[in-house]
Amino acid sequence: MSYCSRNYLARLLLFIVVSTFSFNASAQSRFYPDARSGGNYMHNFYFPPSPSSTPWAPDWSPDGESIAVAMHGSIWNIDPESGIAYEITYSEDAYHSSPDYSPDGRWLVFTADYDHQRIQLEVLDTESGEISKLTDDQAVYTDPVFSPDGSKIAYVSTNPNGYFNLYVREISNGQWVGEPIAISIDNDFGRNRLYFGRWDMHITPSWLPNSEELLVVSNRNVPLGSGNVLRVPAVAGGITQAATVLAEQSLYRTRPDASIDGRRFVYASTSGSADQYNNLYVQPTMGGEPYKLTFYQHDVFHPRWSPDGEWIAFISNELGLSQLNLLETYGGKLVKRTITELHYKRPMGILSVKVLMLIVNHQHPVEFICPPAMASSMLPIMPMPDPEPEEIKYFITMVNSQ
User: Fold this and answer.
1) What are phi and psi of 401, to 5 degrees?
2) Can you tell me the distance from the alpha carbon of 378 to that of 355, in angstroms, rounded to the nearest whole number?
């Protein structure tokens, strides 16, 4: 067996051992320990992915001139006309996602995921560029959305007992005002539900234009799926006054978003698993029959109305990775918004490495016993002494940085 083969097998064995140890260690300190329901199944479908190299969780700016998305672990503004993207948040400690603008455009609330252990709420001052923490504890917070009058934020939290409940809290000048109001509280379904557990979840709030009601998804007293769409008063204990406006089996992709007049909402659905893929639907906010907007043979989800109601931004996985698409509300025109440029807010560079040749020894200076791909993977351990003392094997490489 050649030296390269022996070395490759040894490194492969070491990789397996280290990976096994790392997996065991991570299993002992499991992800998001404060979230006591849902498990990995829910985390994969519901929590913001970290960090996607393509757009996720779109939100229109109030003037309709840009769309905030999560991408590369940061929040970016994308020009819907040109596809040029500008990074507006960045952290070395957390992955940012789920952006939502205040109605005046001054503030942008978003989630910050710290090492898959906790997810917090933070807010960007779009004028100064400064980021402030709204929460800083061990809980999980998701789905922050400003009310249409800008006075409140609705969000989901695992406080106080680890189950997913809805809260509304007043905010002014980028800071909380007063204490959070619990729209829902822990509710025991009475038995375990496959994939969803026995404790009800209340997620993905969307404000109605009056800033007094929410559309939410909840499996409260529902035996199957992640829940129905409910219309809920934004008051303490409002879940007890909820009215069901859409009853169907769902899987975290629903995410209702109310139109600017409050008469309709758009959402993603498989129509109770009648479809193989999630498509976009629209339905009256008081209840009624859904109207199917798209007929794709791939998943589309996370729809958001534009401020003028003329467009719906959403995410498509047609190419296998998330892509930002725009659907004209009344004409049906589809725009696949490709990212044309990335403008980072921090210094970036390019490092390229090219393997020129593998030297076996001075008597055979150009003998190649490893394919270039394998040789590239072995670059970090150059030079490499052979078990036989008379031979030294090493790579000649070219490194270029920009």
Assistant:
1) -120, 145
2) 10
d(CA 172, CA 218): 29
At 81-137, the pLDDT tens digits run 999 999 999 999 999 999 999 999 999 999 999 999 999 999 999 999 999 999 999
Instruction: Give the tens place of pLDDT for each residue, 155-178.
Output: 999 999 999 999 999 999 999 999
Instruction: For the full predicted model, state whether its pTM sits above 0.70.
Output: yes
| 323 backbone dihedrals φ, ψ, rounded to 5° | -135, 145
Identify whether the C-beta of residue 164 lies closer than 8 Å to the C-beta of residue 37.
yes
For the chain, list the domains and their CATH numbers: 3-25+349-401 (no CATH), 39-343 (2.120.10.30)
> Which two structure tokens, joined as six digits, stand for 232?
């809920």
Q: Residue 250 pLDDT more than 60?
A: yes
Per the listing, tokens 């994969």 go with 44
CA-CA distance, 22 to 310, in Å (whole number)?
49
